[in-house]
Amino acid sequence: MSVKFEKETIRDTTVGGGRQRGIKHEIAHEIGERLTGGESTTTGYLAAYLEQLQKNPLRTRMLTSGGLAALQEVLASWIAHDRSKNGHYLSPRVPKMAIYGAFISAPLGHFLISILQRLFKNRTSLKAKILQILVSNLIVSPIQNTVYLASMAVIAGARTFHQVRATVKAGFMPVMKVSWITSPLALAFAQKFLPEYTWVPFFNIVAFVIGTYINAHTKKKRLAALRRKYQGSSGRGEEYSRRDY
Predict the structure, then answer these.
(1) 181/213 Cα distance (integer angstroms)
(2) Can you tell me the distance from the alpha carbon of 186 to that of 189, in angstroms, rounded to the nearest whole number?
(3) Bridge partners of residue 243, in order along the sequence
(4) Nearest C-alpha neighbor of 199 from the set 142, 121, 126, 131
(5) Residue 153 and residue 163: Cα distance in Å, rounded?
(6) What is the mean pLDDT of the chain?
(7) What does the pLDDT average to over 61-81?
(8) Is residue 237 scored above 50 in pLDDT?
């Protein structure tokens, strides 16, 4: 009797696991259809996004960049366990990052990438592609990184020209080293596989991944420094992890 019971239990468990896998497969299939379009949907979300990217390129890039910048701040805070004074991850930096992404980063990237594409339009030789990568790394990236560092300084509380300048000067070369490693790879991939109107969102996604990592790493270092500073201080507790900026 016990042997029979064990077999039935194993059989029921196997059937239940198969049902769970079937449900997961159906959910994944439905998500894929929603994104790319399929028999049950006329237009997928991805196709609709690419259509808007062609019809309204600047507006779509602004919304994309603003959303990614805000999400980057929330995700980096969550990874670093960096909470605000209220104990959550939605600090005042989140809307500021969204404003930066939508109204500074996206228009600047749209303008610079458009110029870069016009300069090398219909030039598909290997020499032209290498030259495009060099122009991007020696002209486009320094401009974007300078604006990024200046904006981050203002968001962090810098109010004078000297404070902003000091932040840019201290962070320029480390950021440029990261750009010189990732930018050629990203641009070479875009040249080979992506239509030109998708370049800016693609670069935004690459910057989002790298920026999230750098932001989280910076927050962890700041929290560790504050933890060492306030360790042993009476009545401070976990106050070192709270910020309001």
Answers:
(1) 15
(2) 5
(3) 84
(4) 121
(5) 8
(6) 82
(7) 93
(8) no
How many whole angstroms separate alpha carbon 153 and alpha carbon 164? 6
Q: Are 61 and 199 a contacting pair, CB within 8 Å?
A: no
User: Does position 137 have pLDDT exceeding 90, yes or no?
Assistant: yes
85 touches 243 (CB < 8 A): yes
Q: Outline where the chain has alpha helix (H).
A: 2-36, 45-55, 57-80, 93-100, 106-119, 126-135, 141-156, 161-193, 199-230
User: 84: which strand partners?
Assistant: 243
Cβ count within 10 A of residue 162: 9
Total Cβ atoms within 10 A of residue 213: 15
Mean pLDDT of the region 197-209: 88
Report the alpha-carbon distance of residue 173 to residue 104 in Å, rounded: 21
- Taking the C-alpha atoms of residue 110 and residue 104, their distance in angstroms, rounded to an integer, is 10
Instruction: Tell me the two tokens of residue 117.
Output: 């594409």
Q: Tokens representing 30?
A: 């439905």
Closest Cα to residue 207, out of 93, 64, 91?
Answer: 64
Q: If you ran DSSP here, which 8-state letter would residue 92 be given?
A: T
